[in-house]
Amino acid sequence: MIDMIVSAVDDRSARGIAGSVSRLVSAGTLPAGTRLPTVRELATELGISPTTVSQAWRTLARAGVISPRGRAGTFVLAGPPASADPRRYRRITRSPGRLPHDYSTGTPDAALLPDIAPVLARVAAAGSLTASYLDDPVLPALEKALRARWPFPPAALTVVDGAMDALDRVTGVLVGFGGRVLVENPCFPPLLDLLEVVGAEVVPLGLDDEGIRPDALRAALEAAGPAGAPGGPVALYLQPRAQNPTGVSMTAARAERLAGLLAGRGVVVIEDDHAGDVATAPPVSVGAFLPEATVHIRGFSKSHGPDLRLAAVGGVESVIGALASRRLLGPGWSSRLLQAVLAELLDDDDTEHALAAARATYARRRERLTAALAARGVRAQAGDGINLWIQVADEQVALVSLAARGVGAAPGTPFEAAPLGAAHLRVTVGLIPDDDLDAVADLLADAARG
């Protein structure tokens, strides 16, 4: 058995060992109840430090793949636990509401959201939209509006209850226990929590000002072997606009390069366009060049309001079909009343004016704060959207310094799929009133310097 594990390990890091063993368990090669070799035995066979194997075993134990039983040994369990604590998400949501000036939330400025009251009144006056449980899950008017705005012609399209619901459901279709997935680094913490819950092996990819670096993607694909090789990546997750936390927006040229690298590899691209209509960058998608392998998620919480709880998912027909079929055994569909509200908002002139004003305001706040921090010798980026990614000398010192002055920010560590080599904070610049930008810049600069 130890020879089988050694031959399956193609990456002798703790992450690589954990992923290889996870895949063996998922495939049934290591069935439940199997007694695994000791840390020292496997480390000797692999020619690595026992500490590395121990880290891999701890990762597998947290994921519910194995169970250490003291002197009796370590055994394979039946599979991952039914639930897990979203530890990264909890870390970035620890302070909301507890500080007078809380810029940790990543939420839009409520004052800049469109007024949905008139639209709600019009939809309510029209009466109930659901005559049968068997009606189509997406209102025809909304589907027509979404398809007209989609960055590529989707083979299938449906609506779910927000972007994270979409990520959860698409992941459930595509990513099996021990599956290898590619993600941006830094990355949205709830996504990392989700991937940990399903027992995925995460491979981080670095970013530059145009999105995922092609050299990082190429290296990850080459490390996985030829197309179709066992253990290759099954999905690539990215945020095409206003990436959270960096604000980077993918260019069309970069999307085309990534598509070229991914063609024929069997990797499904999952795009979370969470910023939507408050992003200043145009809608860009790998699906424009690789539609047969792209699932695009369009969120409306940042732009039209979190209470709508709606996101559209469109792309690969087999994925969307499996998602919709599984959903029949749960909620069935998203509220058609809310769908009608969104359809009206997408065709409403007052809403378009409100969105244009919000984009301009967010852009002004980003530009002013990044310029003010640069003048104070602090490195920060906020390319698009509502967040700012600021480099600090010490994360904890910076958080405590800001909290002492009544200011909340999110720690950078939960965003790291792998260590970045520098400490950061995420600040929701979109929530900072224009009159407070210079004062907040002073506080952030002091905190950044430690």
TrEMBL record:
Signal peptide positions on this chain: none
Domain of life from the UniProt record: Bacteria
Query: Which InterPro entries does the entry mention?
Result: Aminotransferase_I/II_large, HTH_trans_reg/aminotransferase, PyrdxlP-dep_Trfase, PyrdxlP-dep_Trfase_major, Tscrpt_reg_HTH_GntR, WH-like_DNA-bd_sf, WH_DNA-bd_sf
What positions does the domain HTH gntR-type occupy? 11-79
Q: Which SMART domains match?
A: HTH_GNTR
A Gene Ontology molecular function term for this protein is:
DNA binding
- Among its keywords, does the record have Transcription regulation? yes
The residues that cross the membrane are none
User: What are the protein's UniProt keywords?
Assistant: Aminotransferase, DNA-binding, Pyridoxal phosphate, Transcription, Transcription regulation, Transferase
**Gene3D superfamilies in the cross-refs:** Type I PLP-dependent aspartate aminotransferase-like (Major domain) (3.40.640.10), Winged helix-like DNA-binding domain superfamily/Winged helix DNA-binding domain (1.10.10.10)
Q: Name one Pfam family in it.
A: GntR
Stated family: In the C-terminal section; belongs to the class-I pyridoxal-phosphate-dependent aminotransferase family.
PANTHER family the record matches: HTH-TYPE TRANSCRIPTIONAL REGULATORY PROTEIN GABR
Q: What is this protein called?
A: Aminotransferase class I/II-fold pyridoxal phosphate-dependent enzyme
